[in-house]
Design goal:
The structure holds 2 protein chains of 2 kinds. Chain A contains no helices and 10 strands. Chain A is an all-beta fold. Chain B is mostly beta strands. Helices cover 0% and strands 50% of the residues of chain B. Chain B is built from no helices and 11 strands. In chain B, a hairpin with a 2-residue loop joins strand 7 and strand 8. Classes of the chains: A mainly beta, B mainly beta. At the A-B interface, strand 5 of A face strand 5, strand 9 and strand 10 of B.
Chain lengths: 114, 107
């Protein structure tokens, strides 16, 4: 059974950092292209970042809204993907989902507020 | 960036109706179009990938079609459990983008 479990969310002040972790199982993680997608309180879905597999040189891509502040990475030995979020803004408040597009985690809430 | 425009934003239909949801891209996305269903309090679920491929386990009443910039999700016979918001998503070019969703209700 495919599973994706996100952790690391919480309440953080503007300008601070947070790191999300997505632990996966049930598929060959090392071959998978992984994404982070977020959903705002207004329920709009926004693609955040993607990381490809080792065979694609771990290429990464970002939404303009997070470029330079967020970093996606992966550890194939742990079947995990990460999202390092720096210089957080109130508009980053959302549920963050880890996904390989066909399968999604349950999401983790990130609230940026003073 | 490719803009994805979904219509209508809200659709109310009766059980058994044939329902059509639309998604229009601001440029050609070469059929790299997925449809997701999201029920209240749940993560999105993939229904259709690459325009017309039914994801494993999804009922056959769901189907997709389209090309170029215009895409459609059809539910052949609406069921009560289909109440949800439906999002289209293009993965043809970065940044990848979602439509704003169609909320499907039962009359």
């Amino acid at each position: 059974e495919v599973q994706l479990v996100e952790t690391g969310g919480g309440l953080v002040q503007p300008g601070k950092s947070l790191k999300l972790t997505c632990a996966t199982s049930g598929f060959t993680f090392s071959n998978a292209w992984m994404h982070w997608v977020r959903q705002s309180p207004e329920k709009q879905l926004e693609w955040v970042a993607q990381i490809k597999a080792k065979s694609n040189n771990y290429a990464t891509y970002y939404a303009e809204s997070v470029k330079g502040r967020f970093t996606i990475s992966r550890d194939d030995s742990k079947s995990s993907v990460y999202l390092q979020m720096n210089s957080l803004k109130e508009e980053d408040t959302a549920i963050y989902y880890c996904t390989r597009l066909g399968y999604w985690g349950q999401g983790v809430m990130v609230t940026v507020s003073s | 960036d490719i803009q994805m425009t979904q219509s209508p934003s809200v659709l109310s239909a009766s059980v058994g109706d044939r329902v059509t949801l639309n998604c229009k891209a601001s440029q050609n996305i070469n059929k790299y179009l997925n449809w997701y269903q999201q029920k209240l309090g749940e993560a999105p679920k993939l229904l259709i990938y690459n325009t017309n491929n039914l994801q494993t386990g999804i009922p056959s009443r769901f189907s997709g079609s389209g090309s170029g910039t215009d895409y459609t999700l059809t539910i052949s016979s609406l069921q009560p459990e289909d109440v949800a918001t439906y999002f289209c998503f293009q993965h043809n070019s970065w940044p990848l983008t979602f439509g704003s969703g169609t909320k499907l209700e039962i009359k």
